[in-house]
Structures are given as structure tokens and as C-alpha cells.
Amino acid sequence: MNRFEPYPDPASGQLRVLLLNSLLNGGGVDSHTLSLCRALQLQDCEVTLAVPSRARWIVAAQDMPGVRVMALGARRVVWPLILARTIREQRIDVIHAHHGRDYWVAILAWMLSGRKAAVVVTRHLMTRLKERTRRYLAAFSSVIAVSDAVQESLRLVDPDRTLRLRRIYCGIDTERFRTVAMRRQRVRQALGLPRDALIYALIGGAQQPDGKGQFYFVKAAGQVLARHPNSHFLCVGEGDLIPQLRREADALGLAGRIHFLPFEHDVPSLMQAIDVLVHPPVGSEALGLVILEALSCGKPVIATELDGIPETFIDGDHGVLVPPRDAGALAGAMCQLAADPMRAARMGRRGRRWVEANFSLGSLGRETVKLYRDCLSALRRGERRVH
Question: Could you tell me if residue 365 is left (phi over 0), alpha (psi between -120 and 50 degrees) or otherwise beta?
């Protein structure tokens, strides 16, 4: 006797989705998870989000109307059992995991649940997929790549096309990031920045060895300040590189002009205060969600031409692409926008329209739900492949 329940009808009815994120402490993956919750609600899905009880952003998750938040304890070894019970009790149709460490948890929870549901994982990284991971993802789940660059990196380790793979871009709540001029000045005042300052910001973790390219940002800032004395620089994020970055900034004479701030969830308010987002990672970057957030606020972007970053905006129309690890080119682009504020403003306005057209919550929700229903349809037919 088959212990599994019949598959739900994917063509009709409300989908019940369980999202799993074992960190939710800040960063692109976690921002995307919260955005996906909202996007799925717009598609009339019933959403449950499972996160650690000590997650930094758990309050932000709990503040989302209509999203059921599961607070998981510290013992990860029992998570599959807890999630399996939830899958059964809530009659979950789709289990969707986001961090690589969550893939096996989602698959094991599905196996233990006895429910015929679809398992989906999102790949947010450019790092090479391990062969063992590739095998069990191919056997048990469908995979979302957040960019063409990630999709290509997965195909390089999967020449036989065993992975059920689809590219779906991240989505941004553009209304949440809408520019409000009054808020701009309030945030600047709260940060102690002049009303007429030209403010560049880098937002991202500062972990060894390279963080998000903060050292190149600091070096470029020294060159920019020499040519544009009204410039200020925000370095927003946390990590073990901060003390060394502070020393480097002091050596370059940036005291009082570069401001190191801890990361916070209220990125939209911070974005209102800046003029240009600088995003110069040097290692790898699957997409660059912070770029989309800045563009949603009407801010032009300067970023390195790396991996999925060129997919987020059009060079020359919405911002400027520069080579990685080139502080001189980075400084040149920053000075270029400082010298032509009208052009910078046009880039920001065009960038917002670009995000609305290509990276909206509506697009994210529709494409993700279509994948869910395609997965369930294939499972009902007894097929493994989802096209």
C-alpha cells in the first residue's frame, strides 16, 4: 500500500507553500526570501516560512501580514521531523529551500512527511555544486537559478542535464523602495551628514578575504575626495574586515568622510539618503540584489562586471560597470557621475523603470508559481523532467 497521499491538482486551488531559510540574518538570500513570501501571497498562495528562532530578521518576517512564521529551535538535527509534521498537518504542496545547507533538510522532511509534494531549491551562489549535492538535487527536487550566470555554472557541472533547472530572477517590492524626498533629509540628519553632501554607499558583508570589495571602495574614496571635496562615503555592513578598513581609511585621510555603519533591515530608508550605490565585489556574485534595491529607489549604480551583475542593469543607461579589483576605474566612474549630476539622476529614473519592468514582485510570483504547478503536474504524470 502506498503510504503517500494523492498529488494535489496543480491546475486549480490555492497552493500551500513552505519556505525554509535556516539563517535569515541579513543579506541577499534573506532579502529574496522575504520578497518571495510577498510575491507568493500576491499569487494567492498560503505561505509558511520556517526560520531559526534566533534569526536576526525574524521580527521582520513576523511583521508580514498573512505569513505563518515557524520558529525552529537550535537543534538542526530534529528540523526534518518538525517540518515533516508541518507538511502533513498543513497539507503543504511545495517545500522550497534557499540556503545550500537547507537542501537536505527540505528533502528529508518531504520524505518523512509521507505527502506527495514538490521540492524546490533556489541556488543563490556561483560556487561549484558538489557532485553529491548535484545527484540528490537531480533525484528529488527542481532547481531555480537566480541568474543566467548561475544557470550556466550549474550546467557546467551537469553536462547530461540531469538537473531540473529554471532561471527565475529575484523580485523587488518597488513601492517599498519608492523615493521620498522628506525621508532623504531626515535620514541624512540622523546620520550627521550635510544636506548638500554627495553620498556614495557600499552595502554588504565585510568578511575575509575580500568582503564585497570594500578595500577597493576605500581606495577609490580617497581619489574621489581629492576631486570632489563635498563627498561622503558610507560603508554599511559587518564583518572581521572592519578594523582593517578603518585603519586604511585613516591612512588615506578619510577620517570624518567615511562612515562605517552596522547593517540593518530598513535598507529602503538608508537608500533614500544616498546619491550613488557602489557595488564592487571581486570574488563572485550570483546577481546583486542590493543593486535592484538601489535602482528601485531611483539611485544610479556603479558595479563590477562580474558573474550575474551585468544582468541587473544596462551599462550607460542605469549605471556604470567597471572591471573587478580596479580602484582607479572605480574612482573614475564615481567622479564621472559626480561631475554630471543630471546624467546620474536620469540613470536613476531609468533604472527604476527597468526594475519595475523586469524584477517586480509580480514577475517573481507568477514565474515561481508556474514552476510549482509545472512540478506538480509532472509528478502527477509520473515524470521527472520539468521544462
Answer: alpha
